[in-house]
Design goal:
By secondary structure, the chain is an alpha/beta fold. It has 38 helices and 24 strands. A hairpin with a 7-residue loop joins strand 8 (about 330-335) and strand 9 (about 345-350). The chain is globular and about 105 Å long. It starts with a strand and ends in a 7-residue tail after the last strand. The relative contact order is 0.06. The structure holds a DNA duplex (9 and 15 nucleotides).
DNA sequence: GGTCTCACG
DNA sequence: ACGTACGTGAGACCC
C-alpha cells in the first residue's frame, strides 16, 4: 500500500531551530535547523518507509488570508537571520535526499498539504502529515494521521481521528471551530477574548460549531455569553482564517511525489560540507568512499584524501622485517587506554608507510629484540607524524622510551585550527576534514562498563588505520595552518611545548603525605564540631553537603528570607550566605563548614588519592588542547587551583615540597601580565606610561578615574579601581561591574565612562576588536592563535554580548598564554644550556614553579625572571616576582 | 549525567 | 529590551 508523507517545511525548520543550540560548522555557517530537519527526515524514512514524499514551504509573505485580515500573522517576531540563512541549506538537503519540495505563491504550506491530503485520501492512500502546528489536526481522517512535534523536535505525537476525539472530545473539523473561539496568538488570530481551550471545548461539545454557538448565544449565561455575542464577528473571521484551504490549484500530481530513496554519495557530500559527523557515522557513509569522486566532492578542499586506498596491513610481521621496514615509515600511532595519561595502559604502536602498515604490541616493543625500534623512535633526525604527541610521550616515558623527531601532531594542529571544537578525537578530525578509513574508538572498544579490547586482528587493523589517517591528515592540517599563518605557532611553540610538559609531568611534584594527613585530621576535628553546631541550630540532623536539604532548612524551617533562586530551588552559595550572615547564627557556621569541607574533600582527600605510593609524588596532566583561549588546564589532579586566598587553605601548599633534601621550591609569577598585554595591544598612552614608570596599576587607575593625587587614593578607591581593571580584561559591562562591586548599574556605568575617558586607547581597542571580530568571524592573539566567534552577529542579545566580551578578552588572555608558553620552552632550553639540575614542575597561568638545589638558587633567581620577562618583547616592560622557600607555601 | 558549589588565574 | 563578568576542574548530591 502507498504511504505519503507531507512535511510542513517552514514549521519544522522553525521548531528545529529553536529546539537545538545554535550549531555551526567551521566556516561559520549555522546548521542547527538543518541538523534537526535531517534527523527528522532520517527518522521518518526509517520508521515510516514512505512510498511518496513531499515537503511544502510557505511562498513569500502575503497569502490570500492577508486580504481577508491584514493583521494575519502580524506581531510575529522577524525570522532570525541565523534561521533564514539555513533555508537554502534545507532546500539543498532535500535535493540530496531526492525528496520533492513545493511552494506556490499566495498559499501557505498548510494549504498545499491540505489539498494533497484530500487528493490522497480520495485515492485511499495512507497519509502522514508532519508539522509543529496543531491546526493541522483538522486534516485527520481514517487514512490521514497527523504528527505534531513535541518538546522541540525529538519526539512527535501521532494523532489519528480517534486520538483527537479522545484528547479534545472533538472531531478533526471541529479543531477549526476551536481555533475560531480561542484564537491563536502566534498567528495573531483573535478569537473570543476570555475563551481559552477549556471553555471552547465545552462550548463545542455542547453546540458543535462556531455557528451553532453563536446561534444559541442567548442560552449562555453570565459574562461569557456577553463576550461571545460581542465578539461574534471575530469568532467567524477567526474560524475562517484557521480553515486550511484544500482546493489549491496544484501543478503537482500524486504520481510525481513517488519516492525511491536517495543517493548516498550526494548525501555524504552535503553532510561533510555541513560537518554532520555523527550522521555520517550513523549512515555508514564514511567507509563507502571509493575511487570515483564526483565533481561536487572535488570542490571540497581536502576530499582527495579520501582517495587513499586501504592500507595493506601486516600484523604477522617479524621483528626483523619490521626493522627493515622502518626507514620508510612516515606516521606512527601510540595506543593507550585510560583518561589519565600518567596512569594509562600502553597497548602498542602502529606504523604506516606507503608500502605496508604494521602493528607492534607493547610486549614486543619492550622486548630485548626491539632495541632498534626504540632507537628509531628516539632518533631526533627521523621525522615522524602522530596523533597526540603529549600523551604519547607520557605513556612511552613511563616505559622508559623516548619519542623524538615528531614534526606533526594531528591533535595539536586540529586544536590550533579550531580550539572551540567540542571534540578532537582522531575520528572526529577525520570526519571534519573529509578523510575516511577509521571507525570511532567507541565502536571498537565500547565504552564505560562495556569497554573491552578486541581480538588482536581487529585491534591491529584499527590501529593501523589510525596510523594511515594520521599520515593523510598531516598534510591537510598543515596546509590549513599555513593559510592561517599559524605554522610558527605550531612548529616553534606548541610542538616543543608538548615535550616540555611531558617531562614536567613525568617528573611530578613531591608531596609530604604525613603532613597532608595531619592537616586532614585537624580538619576532621573542626568539621565534626561544626556539624554538631549546625544541626543544633537547625533543630535536627540533615546533610549539610546537600544544597537541597540546606535550602529547606534555611528557608522553609528557619524562614530566612530568600535572596536568590537557582533553576531547581533555593540558592545557598557564598553570596547568599554572606547576605544572611547577620540574620541567623547558623549561617556563619555553615560558611566555615563549607570552606573546610571543600579543603577536606577536594584538597586533602583528593590529593592523597593522587600520590603515587612508590615515589610520594603527584603527576598532574596539563591539557594542551582544551582551553579556547590557548591556556593550559590541569587534571588528575588539578594543580592549578590549589588554595591561596585564605590562610586556612593556603596551608595546603605546605605539602608541596622539593623531591630532594637540601633543595627549595622557587615560584616566579608575572605581575599584571594581562594588563600589560592590554597596554601593548591597545597602545594606550596612559596605560603604557603607567607600566614604564612602574606605577601600581590599580592605584594609577584610581587616581585617573577619581581624579585625585596618589596620596589621596584610599584602600576602597584602589579596590574599586582594581575591579574596573578586572572588568576591562573580561570585556566590561556595567551590569557585571555593578554585581562585583555591589553598586548600582548607573554608578558602574559612570565608573566605566570615567575609565574610558582617561584610557581612550583601551576604548578604541575594545571597539575595534569587536568590529574586527564581526568582520572576520574570529579574533587572534599576538602569536596568531585564533578563536572563532560564531555568535558575534547573533540576533539574540545575550549570545551576541557574550561573543563580544569574548572578542575583547581572548586576545588578552590568549596572548598572556602565548607568553608564558614561550617562557616555558625557552626556560627548558636554558636549563639544558646552563647544565642546571633545577627542574620546572608546574605552570599556573601566570606562574612557574621550580625545584632548585641550593647551589643553583642564585643563578635561578637571576635566570628565571630574565627568561620570563623577555620571552616576548612588548612595548611595555614585563615584571616577574620571584620567591623561594622550603615548600610552595613559603615561596610566596 | 546534570546541577550546584567552589577552588584557582 | 536584554539580564553576564573571562578561562578552567573537581566533589557532592540526586535522578
Amino acid at each position: 500500500m502507498s504511504k505519503l508523507i507531507l512535511i510542513d517545511g517552514n514549521s519544522i525548520a522553525f521548531r528545529a531551530f529553536f529546539a537545538l543550540p545554535l550549531l555551526s560548522n567551521s566556516s561559520g555557517l549555522h546548521t542547527n535547523a538543518v541538523f534537526g530537519f535531517t534527523t527528522m527526515l532520517l527518522r521518518l524514512m526509517d520508521e515510516q518507509k514512505p512510498t511518496h514524499f513531499l515537503v511544502a514551504f510557505d511562498a513569500g509573505k502575503v497569502t490570500f488570508r492577508h486580504s481577508e485580515y491584514k493583521e494575519y500573522k502580524g506581531g510575529r517576531a522577524k525570522t532570525p537571520p541565523e534561521l533564514s540563512e539555513q533555508f537554502p541549506l534545507i532546500r539543498e538537503l532535500l535535493k540530496a535526499f531526492s525528496i520533492p519540495q513545493y511552494e506556490l505563491a499566495g498559499y501557505e504550506a498548510d494549504d498545499i498539504i491540505g489539498t494533497l491530503t484530500r487528493m490522497a485520501d480520495d485515492q485511499g492512500m495512507e497519509v502522514i502529515v508532519v508539522s509543529g502546528d496543531k491546526d493541522m489536526l483538522q486534516l485527520a481522517s481514517d487514512n490521514v494521521k497527523i504528527a505534531i512535534t513535541r518538546k522541540g523536535i525529538s519526539e512527535v505525537d501521532l494523532y489519528d481521528k480517534n486520538e483527537i476525539k479522545e484528547k479534545y472530545g472533538l472531531s478533526p473539523l471541529q479543531i477549526i471551530d476551536l481555533k475560531g473561539l480561542m484564537g491563536d496568538k502566534s498567528d495573531n488570530i483573535p478569537g473570543v477574548p476570555g475563551v481559552g481551550e477549556k471553555t471552547a471545548i465545552k462550548l463545542l461539545q455542547e453546540y458543535g460549531s462556531v455557528e451553532e454557538v453563536l446561534a444559541h448565544v442567548g442560552e449562555i449565561t453570565g459574562k461569557m455569553g456577553e463576550k461571545i455575542a460581542e465578539h461574534a464577528d471575530n469568532a467567524r473571521m477567526s474560524k475562517s482564517l484557521a480553515t486550511i484551504f484544500r482546493e489549491v490549484p496544484l501543478e503537482q500530481t500524486l504520481e510525481q511525489l513517488q519516492y525511491d530513496g536517495y543517493d548516498g554519495q550526494a548525501v555524504a557530500t552535503l553532510f561533510r560540507k555541513l560537518e554532520f559527523r555523527s550522521l555520517i557515522d550513523k549512515m555508514d557513509l564514511s567507509g563507502g568512499v571509493s575511487d570515483e569522486l564526483d565533481a561536487e566532492q572535488e570542490s571540497l578542499t581536502w576530499a582527495t584524501a579520501a582517495l587513499k586506498p586501504d592500507p595493506a596491513i601486516d600484523f604477522e610481521i617479524s621483528l626483523t622485517d619490521l626493522v627493515a621496514a622502518l626507514p620508510k615509515v612516515q606516521a606512527i600511532h601510540v595506543e593507550s587506554i585510560g583518561d589519565n595519561p600518567n596512569a594509562a595502559e600502553l597497548i602498542g604502536l602502529s606504523f604506516y608507510s606507503e608500502a605496508q602498515t604494521f602493528y607492534l604490541p607493547v610486549s614486543l616493543l619492550l622486548s630485548n629484540e626491539a632495541t632498534e625500534i626504540r632507537k628509531w623512535l628516539a632518533d631526533d633526525k627521523i621525522p615522524k607524524k602522530l596523533y597526540d604527541l603529549h600523551r604519547s610521550e607520557i605513556v612511552m616515558g613511563w616505559k622508559g622510551i623516548e619519542i623524538k623527531g615528531v614534526k606533526s601532531c594531528i591533535l595539536l594542529a586540529a586544536y590550533l585550527l579550531d580550539p572551540t571544537e567540542t571534540s578532537h578525537t582522531l575520528h572526529s578530525i577525520c570526519s571534519k576534514y573529509g578523510v575516511s578509513g577509521i571507525r570511532a574508538d567507541e565502536d571498537i572498544y565500547g565504552k564505560g562498563a562495556k569497554f573491552i579490547l578486541p581480538q588482536q586482528a581487529a585491534l591491529s587493523e584499527h590501529l593501523c588505520r589510525k596510523a594511515n589517517v594520521i599520515y593523510q591528515l598531516a598534510d591537510i592540517l598543515e596546509k590549513e595552518l599555513e593559510k592561517n599563518e599559524m605554522s610558527q605557532l605550531y612548529h616553534d611553540l606548541e610542538l616543543p611545548l608538548s615535550t616540555v610538559l611531558a617531562s614536567m609531568e613525568l617528573k611530578g611534584i613531591k608531596v609530604n603525605k604525613d603532613e597532608l594527613k595531619k592537616l586532614g585530621e585537624q580538619l576532621a576535628i573542626k568539621l565534626d564540631e561544626l556539624i554538631i553546631q549546625i544541626h543544633q541550630h537547625a533543630g535536627g540532623e540533615f546533610n549539610i553537603n546537600s544544597p537541597k536539604q540546606m535550602g529547606e532548612i534555611l528557608f522553609d524551617r528557619l524562614k530566612l528570607p530568600v535572596y536568590k533562586k537557582t533553576k531547581t530551588g533555593y540558592s545557598t552559595n557564598v553570596e547568599v550566605l554572606e547576605w544572611l550572615e547577620s540574620k541567623h547564627d547558623i549561617v556563619k557556621h555553615i560558611l566555615l563548614y563549607r570552606q573546610l569541607a571543600k579543603l577536606q574533600s577536594t584538597y586533602v582527600e583528593g590529593l592523597l588519592k593522587e600520590i603515587k605510593p612508590a615515589t610520594g609524588k603527584i603527576h598532574t596532566y596539563f591539557k594542551q588542547t582544551i582551553a579556547a583561549t590557548g591556556r593550559l588546564s590541569s587534571q588528575f589532579p588539578n594543580l592549578q587551583n590549589i588554595p591561596v586566598r585564605l590562610e586556612e587553605g593556603r596551608k595546603i601548599r605546605k605539602v608541596f615540597v622539593p623531591h630532594q633534601t637540601g633543595w627549595s621550591i622557587l615560584a616566579a609569577d608575572y605581575s599584571q601580565i594581562e594588563l600589560r598585554v592590554l597596554a601593548h595591544i591597545s597602545q594606550d598612552e596612559n596605560m603604557m606610561e603607567a607600566f614604564h614608570t612602574n606605577l601600581d596599576i590599580h592605584t594609577k587607575t584610581a587616581m585617573d578615574v577619581f581624579g585625585v593625587e596618589a596620596s589621596a587614593v584610599d584602600s576602597n578607591m584602589r579596590r574599586q579601581a582594581k575591579a574596573v581593571n578586572f572588568g576591562i580584561v573580561y570585556g566590561i559591562s556595567d551590569y557585571g561591574l555593578s554585581q562585583n562591586l555591589d553598586i548600582t548599574r548607573a554608578d558602574a556605568a559612570k565608573f566605566i565612562e570615567q575609565y574610558f575617558a582617561v584610557f581612550q586607547g583601551v576604548r578604541r581597542y575594545m571597539d575595534d576588536i569587536v568590529k574586527q571580530a564581526r568582520q572576520d568571524g574570529f579574533v587572534t592573539t599576538m602569536l596568531k592563535r585564533r578563536r572563532y566567534l560564531t555568535d558575534i552577529a547573533h540576533s539574540n542579545f545575550n549570545l551576541r554580548s557574550f561573543a563580544e566580551r569574548t572578542a575583547m578578552n581572548t586576545p588578552i588572555q590568549g596572548t598572556a598564554a602565548d607568553i608564558i608558553k614561550l617562557a616555558m620552552v625557552q626556560m627548558d632550553e636554558r636549563l639544558r644550556q646552563e647544565k642546571l639540575a633545577s627542574r620546572m614542575l608546574l605552570q599556573v597561568h601566570d606562574e612557574l614553579v621550580f625545584e632548585v638545589p641550593l647551589e643553583e638558587m642564585e643563578i635561578m633567581q637571576r635566570i628565571v625572571p630574565e627568561v620570563m620577562e623577555h620571552a616576548l618583547e612588548l612595548s611595555v616592560p614585563m615584571k616577574v616576582d620571584v620567591n623561594s622557600g622550603a615548600s610552595w607555601y613559603e615561596a610566596k
